[in-house]
Amino acid sequence: MEGASSEWQKALSALRRKIDDIDQQVVDLLSKRQKQVEHVVNLKKTHNVQVYHPAREEDLISARRQQAAEAGLSPDYIEEIYRIIMRRSRVEQTDQMAAKAVNPGATVLIVGGTGEMGRYFADWFAGAGYAVRVMGSRDWDNAAALCADIDLCMISVTIDRTSEIIANIAPYLPPDCVLTDVTSIKQAPLDAMLAAHSGPVIGLHPLFGPTTSTLDKQIVVATPGRDDAACQWVVDQFSLWGSVIVTSDAAEHDKIMEFVQSLRHFATFTFGQFLAAKNVPLARTLEFSSPIYRLELGMVGRLFAQDAGLYAEIIFATPQRRALLKEYIESVSRNLEMLENGDKDEFEHQFAKIAQWFGPFGEQAMRESSFLIDKLIERF
Predict the structure, then answer these.
(1) Other residues' Cβ atoms within 10 Å of the Cβ of residue 223
(2) Considering the domain 107-248 in this protein, what is its CATH number?
(3) pTM recorded for the entire structure
(4) I need a surface site. Which of 65, 149, 188, 263 has the fewest CB within 10 A?
């Protein structure tokens, strides 16, 4: 019996050594792949080509899925591995591209550069080799000198002060300086910039915060204002850093952001408010929770772990946003009768109507949320 056990252990050890050898080959191949990526980075730097190439990535994923199926492997398994590989590749490319300037020798002024978002962009532009000047609330006496010969003026202040700051800084700007803002509403700042400055104007809305470690696939909305050609280098710089640029007019942007930001954040706030009012034992609920509940609760907790003033600015930014939130509260209250009557038929009727409205996105949402849930299970 002992001899049989010894033979089994020897066979297992031999198999494990083979697996270790294969793993070493996998690591060696990844190292070789990374060296080729570095050659790609050098070419992209030379020709100012953006990091993210969606068509190339999807073609690669499709080819690897087919190869997996032919090799008797799960296509989903291989896709997940390659998405991790490509993500790592993009991040490393972005880190290297961060030191590349689309407009070498240009000077950038960040108005509000002492704030978190202002410091964030000051670091990115400085890292790319631009001459960066920072202007805070105590620097207005030096405004003329700070604005002298600048190529880009970026306004990074709170929403309620943006139009005022634009009006105050505009008289100091060179005529050919690009003027932009990075607030989460676009119509009012864009109108203010066009009225105050006769040169190139573009509105920007980065859909991320100052804790973002990489700009890989981070969305930046660009709202054209005046002289698109003169503004293009600013857009190209964000693309070079790995951002995805979404072009929109200001009116469309603000309408969509009412739902993407204001309504979503307010609904999350009210959910958290109700949980707190009921004094729900959060830790205990997690012991009973499904992964989807944990994911939803994580998004609520994430909101309340951040700056209240920032979210107040976003949620209450415009009369239109406040009007939408009133409509939302009224729509919720219309369900009271259904609840009081225990009307399951009405619930199912409304459910079916809404599911039809969501259409094919329902299937996409199932796939995406299932992926997130699987990742959450792996971690917790």
Answers:
(1) 24
(2) 3.40.50.720
(3) 0.79
(4) 149
